[in-house]
């Protein structure tokens, strides 16, 4: 039992101890948990105590970050706005007054808005405050500060003037309270009509006028084609109308009519370049109105009412007056010419036009900025250009030729040009030493032809021949007009021909044969050229030229296209005095024979200065067809050279074949090759004919009586030149050793020239002087009698033979030297002995031939130098009773060959060989 109890006790103890142990453990755990919780609590408390500081710091950091980003963005936007404003309102539209100067916009570019002040943002660049005006709208100023408003007006006006070409902005001032005082600085503009003041009570008239302008511009300038002048300018690069800025500075309450007109201007003005800058008058609400409220030096714009604008200071008074004065001076000096390039088609459209029905090209701008066209065709066929010296005829011809040449290819159009006044400006159309280019359409250029009317005649004859050729072709093809001929003969080359004669009255001056023939040819060409595509353009500064035509109504009637330059007289019809009031560099173009209703005014661009012209010429020259040849240049001041004469180059001895290298394509009168050794005898070339082909005047020396030449006059150089050309050309037609040249010189002044010829002729030449000339005569005369065979050709070249009268008076072998000479002249040519001799006067020739009553038929041909026509009487010049129309002039001769000529032919002696 005790055991049981003991056991029980033991078990209870064990149980209690176990329970105690586990209680202790749980207690320990609980305590540990308590500690941990207490620690967590403490840590949490500590952490909680730290939270507000950190969050605040984070918030502050974020706020600072946002502030920085905001500032940077504002800065960037302000910078961008500033740059955009500088782009929008560059130069005069936006720069500060110090250093300000006008910077007109380029053609077609919009003028853009104008700066009146700046918008200032804290810590950021300032941004220009811009106000649109020209081409965009109107500006309305308000605010108690009248001076501040007037300063803004001055700023807007000066900047507008600076953005436009001089004269392109016109101001109309209405300032009834201060009678223009607000615009006083701009007063110099009124001297050029660029500023007009309207007095008190004139507002209605001013507004009526603006409304009229708007209506006119809409009807005639925009004409439904463009919505605004701005659009027109962008499309065409032209601005035919100025901007009109009406500055209205206060006044009475507007009447109903005025209000209505003002509303119209506000609504419709901007498209037509009519603008208002207004203070003290209400403007109706309209999107084109920019409203500026001025308070002291600040302003607010209705476009961004939240931003305050710091206004620029007003422009310095001296800047306003100086600029206005300068603009007025420039405008008073005349409008700058429109550029020549305006007359040209785009490069890729050059040479695209067809001339079958006519030639049309612009010559300048009309008052509305539209091109004024000139047409040559069946109607009008020919043109007359007139204007006093210096008014721009030559320039107009350049402009017209350029505009045509850029449109029509050389296959469609050819030019022939003749300038009777001194000067060489037309020479540039031909190939020159300095500039190898030429105008591919140009076939002939005659310059310095003022004394050589024969050249004009030659041109007219050439054109008459071309007219005949065309008329024949038309007849063959049974058509009547060029356009029809071109249709039926598409392979043929039938360009229209435009022949321009500047100072053409020179051609018709005098009452001689040249003038008569020229007038006849002109009349024929004018009448029949129309249908064959040959057009005449005659220019004259001189009323006499026109009057020369006036005597021939049939001729004048054909010139239906009239172009009158400022102050031109009698080019237009009698009651049409439009040319009298023309500004500089303008022309009245009239295709109605000068009747007033046909008037069109054109502003002519500058086309004649070297740079302007040569750009076009070089371009067209590079486009020329591969076979294009340069134009023939006839320069009346130039002395031709024998070695370069095509007819000389083509000469060769009989039997020689082929042509010498570098020669022309064909001997121009067929002389050389057919002549050499042929039955017609060799040819002595004497000088260049004044014609369109640079041919040589030649005298044939067949075995026939009278084939001798007399050179008459005292001109030593000219006489030597004629004899030298004759001898050298003859020499070229004989093989060495087959012809003799005997040179006798009796004038010491001619000695050098004669000796140089002697050297050039080499072994075939013999030299004589006063000592042995009698011997030469005797020998030659005696030689003619021997045998019947003609013997080898012998040419006697006698210089100043009249000076040998003494020596030839001596008797040798039963006859005097003069008798021998007469015998040679008489009998020589049939035996191939030809005398080419220079007598220093007609009387001396007659004396050597046997006196005034002697026969002269042994002188078959002569060249007269400084000998009056009247001296060349019937004996020498059987064609006319009183001798030829010949007035001596330097380095010219009149050549007459009885065998071939009806009238004398003017020649230019060849210059001394180099
Ligand atoms: N439309 C123009 N624009 C600018 N300058 C021009 C214009 N027309 C002519 N000129 C200039 O005026 C001057 C005279 O012109 P031009 O030689 O054409 O006159 P002209 O009537 O032919 O005179 P003249 O009969 O004396 O030769 C030249 O210097 C020329 O460059």
TrEMBL record:
Residue stretches making up the FtsK domain: 369-574
Chain coiled-coil ranges: none
UniProt-recorded name of the protein: FtsK/SpoIIIE domain-containing protein
Keyword Nucleotide-binding in annotation: yes
Region (Disordered): 82-110, 648-678
Organism of derivation: Plantactinospora sonchi
Record: residues binding ATP: 387-394
Annotated keywords: ATP-binding, Nucleotide-binding
Record's compositionally biased regions (Low complexity): 82-94
InterPro entries membership: FtsK/SpoIIIE/SftA (IPR050206), FtsK_dom (IPR002543), P-loop_NTPase (IPR027417)
